[in-house]
């Protein structure tokens, strides 16, 4: 696995760490911009890699193939995320008692799977994540989970939202759902422009989601 | 109908107006405190009355009887709310082009019914509202709707949330749902203390709900 670590040069001491799980195409402009914003805010940020070798897909076809490669061995996703979190926690610049994670699309699923594994995580944020449960059992969830979801997302229907809510409740998680009406998948991606397929950018949903997630990071990670 | 109007003495000119629909017991400390906060923030606030004569129930039994009296003639609820909104809009201190509404419990239903009627409303906020649809057809919804919901609310199950989402989407509304895990009905009420019946105060949910609603009022009513 090959991630990218960002932090401010002038950190006064060990800082909270945030792991970002990219969308299914691998790290791109959306994840990079977000990482910069969080690093400037004083977090140490790891842009994670759940494919290996820091792969970035050239197009949707390649991204889909990479994603199905991991999906076919689903428990691997949580293990790779756990390895990334451990690498982040091991940084000298990081206060390992204050860790959060966020992810987009398939990376949202990756973050949920990490939280489901009982990882030592204060915050788990999923942005238009895919919500279906992995085969391995859900552990007691330590993270405060924030699910940011476009209600018209074709990859996560209302039934999947309701099932996730039930799962998180049963796992004892503190959790919140933000559902955005008239909004589909990929709402954080300014290049998403396929409303007929339920995938389109929404500036309003993006702004509301990031604002809520930033507040939760600040609340739980003590910044 | 007999409401209570609150506003700051030093308003520089016509201000946006907010109608508050109380919980089923009629206006009490929760609604009054909220009205004061909003008035201090520069809104003209009307504590509405959907029972008549400004009735406040002495206990849960009386509140239930009052509520069923209105519920038995459900279309009346939206009409009484419309009359309250018109009274608010007619105040000299109010800019009638900038109106919002919020409500608790049965008052959440009242605000939703007002929005469903196509009222000229920029914001409609429901706090642990009851979500079922009235018999009259839903009109094109002008309000930006924010549904703040405890996921374990016994008065509004996940199926009702999903049905409301579908209704709001079909009505063309801009809408958002905040779902709070491990949270039931009455979460804004510090005196609610019946978790075994799914009704209990949650300081965290209250704070998150009010913060989101305040931001939406500020965004849509231009304060």
UniProtKB/TrEMBL annotation, chains A, B:
Gene3D superfamilies: alpha/beta hydrolase (3.40.50.1820). Residues 5-219 form the Dienelactone hydrolase domain. InterPro entries: AB_hydrolase_fold, Dienelactn_hydro, FrsA_esterase. It holds the Pfam family DLH. GO terms for molecular function: hydrolase activity. Coiled coil: none annotated. It comes from the Bacteria. Signal peptide: none annotated. This is Carboxymethylenebutenolidase.
